[in-house]
Specification:
Four copies of one chain form a homotetramer. The first copy, chain A, is α/β, with parallel strands linked by helices. Chain A folds into two domains: 5-170 and 274-305, NAD(P)-binding Rossmann-like Domain (Rossmann fold), CATH 3.40.50.720; 175-271, Dihydrodipicolinate Reductase, domain 2. Helix content of chain A is 33%, strand content 22%. The first copy, chain A, has nine helices and 13 strands. A six-stranded parallel sheet of chain A has the order 5-4-1-6-7-8, sandwiched between helices. In chain A, strand 7 (138-141), helix 5 (151-160) and strand 8 form a beta-alpha-beta unit. Chain A starts with a strand and ends in a 22-residue tail after the last helix. Chains A, B, C, D: Pfam families: Inos-1-P_synth (PF01658). Chains A, B, C, D: Its EC number is 5.5.1.4. Chains A, B, C, D: This is Myo-inositol-1-phosphate synthase. Chains A, B, C, D: It is an enzyme of class 5 (isomerase).
């Protein structure tokens, strides 16, 4: 029998809520709806056990993980399933580079540390990676901060025979994925792109942060697209009533044979944290499996699940 | 210098209008907009010369090809370019299996016969194929009638060392192409399809014919899609004011991780005859090149441009 | 204290399901969501008591009204509220003009008979109206069959001092309402309509019937629109997965000052039975109030809730 | 015979381009497409003569009005009609409150001064109004700067028996008009609004200015809507490739009877300058007619064409 993967998580936001609840839903109903890989090296979706959780919000600290995930500003919905208490109280997380030893101690017994805090605090991300390394735990960086792309950090993990996965989670299904697929389809069929735009609207705290610091995101979104010189990005719109949903409007104007008009309008609605959790469930199992098989460094299998894997520009 | 491909065409409808005008537009401006293959074995888009045209409409017979393409019920627009007279009067076409010798005689000097009449008269299609075979001309069947899939016809062409391309042109960019790409993307990302629909609206004579005989088309459209059991096709809508445009509304409802909702709504507008001509321009050059190189039978290069290449079900 | 309106209903389909459940939901929560008139002459939404129900489906006959509304082909969803048993077993309804006396007897104690069966059986509708008249009960015809427009039937009700409301319920919010509003807005602002189309998709049994007999509906829908000569209706699409939802796609192409393009694309999603019940709740209270006040004939207040009130063409 | 209205214009941007070209198009073809009022007090669309034009751009000054309207950043398209030279060279406009006498002198022979410069320079607007007053010319303020709402300015015009129209042009057909109509329709039919959003995208210089100073516009847009507390405005998106087109995406989520879902998605495409010119053509004729009839002050007929007529808040 497979032993459950023992996971610690940093950040108790919407993405963690979607992950914890989605696992419970799967256990409850056996449902494989929305699951990309039913098993990874023998590990099923339900073979995950949470053993520690770190957060910085005073409201969440001390609460059981299964309770803390519903506290504001989290607004991912409560899924329709039993959610037994995890027995994992949320622990005070790091706010700077100090406290690595405390975290390393708390990771005793964990196999994987999933770093799922907001982007933009690279020194904190590095401190957690250091703690994981000291504790002999695989590390997953889902943020845009460069950790797996940092050759020094990667060397440390490789030397220790520990897996290091990152950086920047690619959502299971989002605007970039769809926009990309359609623009490539156009190219493939020989149509000529005239112009295109993308409007992104969302209602999570993460989205609000992006709205206030839009430039990196905008550039990274454009980088993901073919013929990006003809694509314009409208400013991100934070619309609280959307809650954890993301809505995108895409338009593509092209010309076909005889310069006749081809036009495509798309409205996409997804749940944002769910798109992250659907990838995290795979990253965790890839990390646990690599650790158990003694494979340090970046697992090839993880590359397509990340926007900025090792070797890409920082 | 490359010698121009000498092409005869059966059917002087919208698709032929788009083909003839698109070539003139390219010659006029050098534009490669909407062109999938700038060159096929050295043949550029402009390297096409029309040498004969067959039609059954009394109004079109006797008119120059460049005049006949604007007669009703054709409603493909007049493109913005000079269109010098072709010097090719439209000849009376076949209405049944008689007259093969007359057509064969008229094909003297042609290299390729493009069969671009409405689907649904297989005996007429076969008669033209026979005429091409006798005249030593390559044959392209763009209709759904089984010609290239007919082993007997194929054997005749192979024995004669003549190319035979068909059946059923796959539009350069249409509803099936987009719907397919999106449904496959969904699968690839691990989402679960709940339901999907497709609404097709058009204003050409071809479209009107389909509306009156929808079943074959509906089945062939569903066959083209993954997870087709969950896709519903609304009845085709003939809306004359759309003229040669086709409009499609697609909806895709799916579930992601945690069974959260993913939904996609697409509106697609294309010019229907242009989507056909953009593929015919490639088939013609593939056929001419195969003929010149002495390759009889079905050229592998043509397979992806056809819905029902040899070997698929009749 | 207001005495509850005592209502008998003919037809135990989706519309009756939406009506019965919506009233229960209102009683449960006090919610006035989606309610157009909180009170009609003192009668609140909850002041309705069902006293008889007629249906022709063997499966429904004998079941309590609150159970029968969930039997197939009904597919209006189960609303999230308690639904106490009505104590009203569904009675065998009429299939032709015989049995009027039996129905009249069963209407003892009722104030209003709501005729909510499928359109297309005028002789049955007239038989129920006759029964209502004999029993001294107000009659509401929600179908397109001409009852209130039949001067003979109207005279009978007027002579008896009984209210007669009809014909053909105008949905609370549907495609025609929205299309109409937008086309009128265009006119009002001085824009020039070029073309417009309407696509209607639905999944109820009623919708399936319409798809098979589309002409009357198509004409009545066009009649409802200004500048109808420029509007094209795509064929109705019966898509079972939509269940009780109706989806419409509208397009409006117009020209503004300088002949510049104005275009509007609309996707509308509504629940079809709910749109009927939201109007029936008002018609019932208008009928009961008219009866109680001794006003026979057609109440003026009902006119705007009907597509074909008395005086319009049959 | 009616004497042509003699008009001077301040600002030679897109709106002026649309006005000048639209009048020429009408004269050329007699077309009344997109015209709200074929005649105003006997003045037809073509009964407008431009007699002076003021601008601050060095490139435009000295050019004929019909040439200056095509200079960047103007991007309203060149309409398909003859545009005979106006014989009106663009004059250096005001940049502050000095130069009133010079402008007044230049207005000799004019009947109406149309102030169509960018919003945001109230002192300049007032200076032009003063010049008009001194010259005995009617004044139209199409900007949001308070001129007609300024009681002092209004008194001056009333005392002089001169018409003063303003402030802030209401576009002939735009996002607010459509959003408003749909939200009101919802209310009227008794549906309950849950949430709504509006995304506005445009490509003109005016739009770029708004994007950089969005707050006033946002507030004024919300003020225009019923149930505005439930409506969220996405940030304006300046997408240069749209040129003079404006694109809006509207979403409306509501609940009907039984709390069932009603949802509306709208995509609107309009030409922005055309929507202004279509109203300016009416304001000009109303102003000229009032002047000729000796009616000073604000003409009642103009009120519905303005967002902030006299008496509304500044």
């Amino acid at each position: 029998m497979i032993k459950q993967a023992r996971v610690a998580v940093v950040g108790v936001g919407n993405n963690t809520s979607a992950l914890v609840q989605g696992i419970a839903l799967h256990r409850h109903s056996g449902s494989l709806v929305g699951v990309r890989r039913p098993a990874v090296d023998g590990l099923a979706v339900g073979d995950i056990e949470f053993v520690a959780a770190f957060a910085t919000s005073q409201e969440k600290i001390g609460k059981d993980l299964t309770e803390a995930i519903f506290l504001p500003p989290n607004n991912f919905p409560r899924l329709d399933c039993d959610l037994p208490e995890a027995g994992v109280p949320v622990t005070k997380g790091l706010v700077d580079a100090t406290g690595v030893d405390r975290v390393a101690a708390a990771l005793a017994g964990a196999e994987v540390l999933l770093y799922s805090a907001p982007s933009g605090r690279p020194e904190v991300a590095r401190a957690y990676a250091e703690a994981a390394c000291r504790a002999g735990v695989a590390f997953i960086n889902t943020t845009a901060d460069p950790i797996a792309r940092d050759p020094e950090v990667m060397s440390r993990f490789e030397a220790a025979g520990l897996p290091l996965l990152g950086d920047d989670l690619a959502s299971q299904f989002g605007t970039s994925v769809v926009h990309n697929a359609l623009l490539r389809l156009l190219q493939e069929r020989g149509l000529t792109l005239v112009s295109s735009y993308q409007v992104n609207l969302g209602g999570t705290e993460d989205f609000r942060n992006l709205v206030e610091n839009p430039n990196t995101k905008k550039r990274s979104k454009l980088n993901a697209l073919p013929d990006a010189g003809k694509v314009e990005m409208a400013p991100l719109g934070y619309l609280p009533h959307l809650r954890s949903q993301k809505v995108a409007h895409l338009n593509i104007e092209a010309r076909g044979w005889g310069e006749t008009v081809v036009s495509l309008d798309v409205k996409l609605r997804v749940d944002d944290p769910s798109g992250a959790a659907g990838v995290n469930i795979d990253l965790i199992r890839i990390a646990a499996s690599a650790l158990r098989n003694g494979h340090g460094g970046h697992p090839a299998q993880a590359t397509s699940l990340l926007k900025s894997p090792p070797g890409t520009a920082i």
